[in-house]
TrEMBL record:
It comes from Intestinibacter bartlettii CAG:1329. This is Cyclic-di-AMP phosphodiesterase. Keywords: Cell membrane, Hydrolase, Manganese, Membrane, Metal-binding, Transmembrane, Transmembrane helix. GO terms for cellular component: plasma membrane. Mn(2+) 1 binds at H358, D362, D431. Residues 75-152 form the Cyclic-di-AMP phosphodiesterase GdpP-like PAS domain. It holds the Pfam family DHHA1. Belongs to the GdpP/PdeA phosphodiesterase family. Mn(2+) 2 binds at D364, D431, H455, D510.
Length: 666
């Protein structure tokens, strides 16, 4: 459809008409002097009249604009003076140039002009505002009120000179923050409590005293959770409780670092084993169900880390408290028997099996892996151990394994394992539960069947969706766990002599030749290995080191620094291939120094700094190493730091030790 034409007539301005009249009057003069002269005088009058009218209108317009400007200025001044929020204008040096009524009411001071703002209100970083030269915000507290201060720099032109001023708007948000805080305080939190090793603790007390332990537990729970924290606690079984509370009360527990853990530990009813509890807290969820799920996950983590601690789980992080006690060794072997039969069942149904330990494997990881290999072979199944690099700590053992026809083709590289791995493959992980620590993490993403056998305290990172999990943190070593599995499958499993020696070597390594973390079951496992042919002399030969290692170890000990007369810290400047083994042995030797309770040794290789931590039990080195992304046990732990210098890592460890000592003295 075509648009209609739009005709518009533009009339010329009045000056054009006057010009036309002037031209016509001159032309008329040529024909008639009198008539032309009359018209010409009329033209002059029109020009004069037009000029007079234009000048008058200009004056009236200027007068109108001036009056309007005065009215606007007066309105603006009244609006600023009566602005419902405090406002002040500052010179660049911080002196107050002007303020409104609300600012006067806020400060309560009648004479503020010329006063420096820093003398009235602290924590105003004016220099930063000047540097940024844009609108900025900051939060301050003044006379028990909370404000958001909006900074705005303005430019004022006076006598062709630019003058800069700062306008500060004070937005009072006290009521909003108080309401928000009340909302946060009254949010729900769920706490799950479990008594660690309840049956073992009761058995450690005289029979007539056992009921007193339960009575004392419930008395403390009632006093703390019901009376002090005003919550509701319910006993769900003989050793489990659930507690409902609010965020405000939970923060009290966090502020005193869950002191109830120490109170429970002091229960004395002639029990030889200490009474300890594990606490899992779920908070900050969108529903009670979500809080309950988080509490369950937190409790599992607390138990997996050895108990006697509280774990608080929020949406995106964990917080840990306690963890001062060693895990109590369980006397029953029922779980080992059940796991053994379940493991045999899974292996029997599989045709492709890969076994792997952690990166930079030690004799505990390698001994356990060879032990699982023997179990698979006894079940008539072919299995392979994934191993890329051989370090000095396992070099002698691997060399012996490769020499024997019995283990022919047992080792494969990560590359070959990934090529042949599929969703039906069974991957058995030993001596670690962290995906990123495994020899080949890609296998965990490919295979649908994963089995984990580990004895380290559980960290936040954990292999999920396992078909079988054998995780016992009270056990000395993974080799001890595998040995118990073999014992319950003894009728069907035949163990090679070298496998038995590898398992014994792993136990020797993690117990420091039966000095640390050694229980009755540890000696039973060692006795069994000796019975089936393990040679203790041959096992001892696996721990031999060269002269360079001795020299490097001596240098470490020589340059050791002792902090607070209790903790040793040192590092090795030598970059040798088996630095992780050297620093571990050095850390063990430093514990022989009188009054020393813990030792931390650092060493570097390529782009990795290794940290080895040892303790006599009074200091939880697992918690300290966990801050660096590592872990382990309460008395044996370690960490690996990537892409940092040795000096940087040393400073980090030193700072963590200082923070620990400060917290201990509080």
């Amino acid at each position: 459809m075509r648009n209609k034409p739009n005709f518009k007539i533009n009339m010329p301005e009045i000056n054009a008409y006057i010009l036309i009249i002037g031209i016509m009057s001159i032309m008329l003069l040529a024909y008639n002097l009198y008539l032309g002269g009359l018209f010409f005088f009329g033209f002059i009058y029109i020009v004069f009249h037009n000029w007079r009218i234009a000048n008058f209108r200009k004056k009236e317009w200027n007068k109108y604009i001036q009056n309007l400007s005065l009215d606007m200025d007066e309105t603006t001044k009244k609006a600023i003076m009566n602005l419902p929020i405090p406002l002040c204008i500052l010179e660049f040096d911080g002196n107050i140039n002007w303020y409104n009524n609300k600012f006067y009411e806020m400060t309560g001071s009648p004479d503020l002009l010329g006063e420096n703002i820093d003398n009235i209100i602290q924590n105003l970083d004016l220099r930063k505002v000047l540097n940024e030269n844009k609108e900025m915000y900051t939060d301050v507290e003044y006379k028990n009120r909370k404000y958001t201060v909006v900074y705005n720099v303005i430019k004022n032109e006076q006598n062709n000179k630019a003058k800069y001023l700062m306008m500060l708007y004070w937005l009072d948000k006290t009521e909003y923050l108080d309401l928000r805080q009340r909302y946060e305080d009254n949010k729900n939190a769920i706490m799950l409590i479990q008594v660690d090793g309840y049956d073992e603790v009761l058995k450690s007390a005289p029979e007539e005293k056992r009921s007193l332990i339960t009575v004392e537990l419930e008395r403390i729970f009632a006093a703390v959770f019901e009376n002090e924290l005003k919550g509701a606690i319910k006993k769900t079984s003989q050793d489990k409780y659930v507690f409902f509370t609010r965020e405000k009360e939970l923060r009290k527990l966090q502020e005193n670092k869950f002191a109830i853990l120490d109170t429970i530990r002091n229960i004395n009813c002639e029990n030889t084993l200490p009474v300890t509890i594990s606490i899992g807290v779920g908070r900050d969820g969108d529903s009670l169900y979500e809080d309950l799920q988080r509490a369950n996950g937190a409790l599992d983590l607390a138990l997996g880390r050895g108990g006697d601690q509280a774990v608080v789980k929020t949406k995106d992080k964990f917080e840990f408290y306690g963890g001062k006690s060693k895990a109590v060794e369980k006397t029953t072997k029922v779980k080992s028997r059940l796991i053994g039969y379940a493991l045999k069942e899974v292996i029997s149904q599989s045709n492709n099996i890969y076994i792997m330990g952690h990166k930079y494997p030690d004799l505990d990881a390698m001994g356990a892996a060879v032990g699982i290999f023997d179990i698979c072979k006894s079940c008539g199944k072919s299995a392979h151990i994934v191993l890329d690099d051989v370090n000095d700590s396992i070099e002698e053992f691997v060399k012996r394994v490769k020499k024997q026809e019995y283990y022919k083709g047992v080792f494969v590289t990560c590359e070959d394992a990934i090529k042949n791995c599929n969703k039906d493959t069974v991957v058995i992980v030993v001596d670690t539960h962290r995906p990123s620590y495994t020899e080949c993490q890609e296998l965990l993403n490919i295979a649908k069947k994963v089995i984990v056998i580990d004895h380290h305290r559980r960290g936040v990172e954990f292999i999920k969706d396992t078909v079988l999990l054998f995780h016992e943190i009270y056990v000395s070593s993974t080799c001890e766990m595998v040995t118990e599995l073999i014992q319950y499958l003894e009728e069907d499993v035949k163990i090679n002599k070298l496998t038995a020696e590898g398992l014994l070597a792993g136990i020797n390594l993690d117990t420091k030749f039966f000095a640390f973390k050694t229980g009755v079951r540890t000696f039973e496992a060692a006795s069994y290995l000796k019975k089936i042919g393990a040679d203790t002399v041959e096992t001892k030969m696996l721990f031999k080191s060269n002269v360079e290692d001795f020299i490097a170890r001596a240098d470490i000990i020589k340059n050791t620094k002792i902090i607070n007369k209790r903790i040793c810290i040192a590092y090795s400047e030598s970059e040798i291939s088996n630095i992780n083994v050297v620093i571990a042995k050095a850390a063990d030797e430093l514990l022989n120094i009188k009054n020393v309770e813990a030792s931390f040794i650092l060493g570097h290789k390529n782009d990795t700094v290794f940290i080895s931590a040892r303790s006599l039990g009074q200091i939880n080195v697992h918690v300290l190493m966990e801050k660096l992304g590592g872990g382990g046990h309460i008395d044996i732990a370690g960490a690996q730091l990537k892409n940092v210098t040795l000096n940087q890592a040393y400073k980090q460890v030193h700072q963590i030790i200082e923070e620990y000592l400060e917290e201990e003295n509080q």
